[in-house]
Amino acid sequence: MNTTITPCLWFNDQAEEAVAFYLSIFENAKITDTTYYTDAGTEEHGHKADTVMTIAFELNGQTFTALNGGPHFTFNEAISFQIPCDTQEEIDYYWNRLAEGGPAEAQQCGWVKDKYGVSWQVFPKRLVELTLDPDRDKARRVIKAMLAMKKIVLADIEKAAEG
Question: Most CB atoms closer than 10 Å: which of 29, 57, 63, 144?
Fold first, then answer.
């Protein structure tokens, strides 16, 4: 079997707004499909006919679905999306863009929660390499440095690796 897995992001009624926000951030991004509520099941879902139900979209080749599901559920940090970056410029770009426009929240170790409550991990690929280094002292120093950061600063990670 070659089945793909698509995360479904449950929004109250901001799916269109959130998808537009994410498409503005990721260069390789597109909407692939949109479905609409009908008058069937209005008693259960509570949405008017012809309003957006789901939006299928892609960010850098990863498929997602955004659902206007209502106020029943909210996002939390138990699920996050990772953005491994090559440079500090990439880290700064994604971190700053995801934090735009509202009560976004900087979190420890490269995590940022966007204005919709979705958590993202923005980190340098080099961080993973350094934490996997067979020199356990180097890995320990790198992890200690990372734990003291919110947005990851690659130069400070490299400095910690050097000792």
Answer: 57
**pTM of structure:** 0.90
Q: Domains of the chain (ranges plus CATH)?
A: 8-68 (3.30.720.100), 80-162 (3.10.180.10)
pLDDT along the chain (163 residues), means of 10: 91 97 97 94 82 97 96 92 97 94 74 93 94 93 93 95 91
Closest CA to 114 of 148, 147, 88, 79: 79
Tokens of 74: 């909210």
How open is the CA angle 86-90-91, to the nearest 5 degrees? 95
Cα(77)–Cα(67) distance, rounded to whole angstroms? 19
Q: Give the list of residues 6+ apart from residue 50 with CB closer than 8 angstroms, or none.
A: 36, 37, 38
d(CA 163, CA 143): 12
